[in-house]
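User: Hey, my collaborator sent me this sequence without any context and asked if I could get a structure. I don't really work with proteins. Can you help?
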Amino acid sequence: MGDRVDPGFIRLQFQRRAEDEMSERALRFYEEMDRRRSVRDFSSDPVPRELIEAAIRTASTAPSGAHQQPWTFVAVSNPALKRRIRLAAEEEERQSYLGGRMSEEWLEALEPLGTDWQKPFLETAPWLVVLFEQAHGFRADGARKKHYYVKESVGIAAGLFIAAIHRMGLATLTHTPSPMRFLSQVLGRPDNERPMVLFPVGYPADGATVPDLQRKPLREVAVWDPVVDEE
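Assistant: No problem. I've predicted the 3D structure and written it out in structure-token form, which is a compact way to encode the shape of the chain:
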């Protein structure tokens, strides 16, 4: 069985709440998350490392296929390393925006957001956190260990990381320069890891602005008890 460890079972720590309390908690959380916005204009004010640690710990509570936890969070605060990441990211983005990698339809979709190939926030934000997905792991003897539902698992962890950052009063952005392989090289990651998302993290700059966007209403994103033809 390789290096498999049987975790055993423990009693679930769960508190059943009154329905009115559940509704209140749900509404408060929704309203808080509805105020969350992606930020591209950051303050350089320092952010304590323990806050980044807390966000990564929270993200790592995410469910994952076979509990393989196929993620690695690499946190960067070193100014020289952040500059290397910015220069490499901007080169990729320049090719995307100006070099023909992006279709006209894609560029048109991005136009309301006001984005371009320049990414100064990669140096301004006090922290850059790069989330890597692990295509596979390793057993104690060095043999490969298969990971299951990697993208789904890492995607859930990314969502919890974003929620944790917002909950503590910081801001972030899901930055995905394409291709992203340069992050593996700059950060010295092993071959079994692939970069998925680059999160700049910090306080919004004074006077920061964001696009005036509206989220889809519930009726456009939820379907209740669909009626389907029975065979």
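In plain terms: Helices lie at 19-34, 49-59, 79-97, 104-110, 121-124, 150-167, 181-186, 218-221. You can pass these tokens on to your collaborator as they are.
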